[in-house]
Amino acid sequence: MKSLGFEQGHSLNDYLTKYRYQRDGGRSRDAEIYAEDFNDITFLKEYDNWMNDGQPIPIRNDRDFFDIQKKVWGKVKAHIHCCYSVEELIKEGYGNEVRL
User: In what helix (H) or strand (E) does residue 99 lie, and over which residues does it extend?
Assistant: First the structure.
């Protein structure tokens, strides 16, 4: 992952989620949502701060979003909801990764 430009301490799933937040203008609110479930929510606040910091990440666009998954996992596991139809994914060359 580091060779792809990702920093240590965050998973590919973290980066995929951060890209979706940045792409759609959303914000992570885990500390607020799960505050009642944990005695210490420091780690959730740190996660939210990282998610919402607005700093660029190695995933620059939707194509990167899919291509990085193929490089790391050999297939696409995460999708950008409401972004592509199955037909569009197949047209873009992701027919083998489309799972319904």
Answer: none
